[in-house]
Design a protein that fits this description.
Elements: E1 2-7, H1 27-43, E2 54-63, H2 73-84, E3 118-128, E4 135-142
Helix pairs in contact: 1-2
């Protein structure tokens, strides 16, 4: 199964060891991410997060002038990945995350049960004209165990 969705916002960006769940700037972006992901999961007919190995794609659309200054792709991937799983139990989520309840709530894994389940990542920054708004696309897809290359 593959779940794909678009978020009309900047992606959450992880800053070092700081949790995206507790940051003033990133918490509203987690809300946008989780609302879009839950809607896509429901539309796909999935009732819970993938507990299998997964591939994840993240495509970030931004003004050409910000391609280099906006930040590293790995920071966006880490922020999106963190936002698609349950918040760490040791972190007190930001107050704006209190609006997320039920399956979208911070204590619930939404599309992945943990970042260690992600075995393939495809990500890129893409430029658009200055008149467009930031957005990003995310796709998460189950990978069969036998499709994962095994070291010999």
């Amino acid at each position: 199964m593959r779940i794909k969705f678009t978020v009309n916002d900047r992606p959450p960006k992880k800053h070092g060891e700081q949790s995206v769940w507790a940051q003033d700037v990133e918490a509203p972006r987690i809300v946008s991410l989780r609302k879009a992901a839950l809607k896509a999961r429901q539309e796909a007919g999935a009732d819970k997060a993938f507990d299998s190995l997964v591939a994840m794609e993240v495509h970030v659309f931004m003004p050409r002038a910000q391609l280099e200054s906006i930040g590293d792709l790995d920071s966006f991937v880490a922020g999106v990945s963190d936002g698609l799983q349950a918040a760490d139990a040791k972190v007190t989520p930001h107050k704006v995350l209190q609006e997320l309840t039920g399956d979208a709530g911070p204590s619930q894994p939404l599309l992945i049960t943990g970042a260690a389940k992600v075995v393939l990542i495809l990500t890129r920054k893409m430029a658009f004209t200055e008149s467009q708004e930031f957005r990003y696309e995310v796709a998460v897809e189950e990978i069969p165990e036998d499709a994962v290359l095994k070291a010999e």
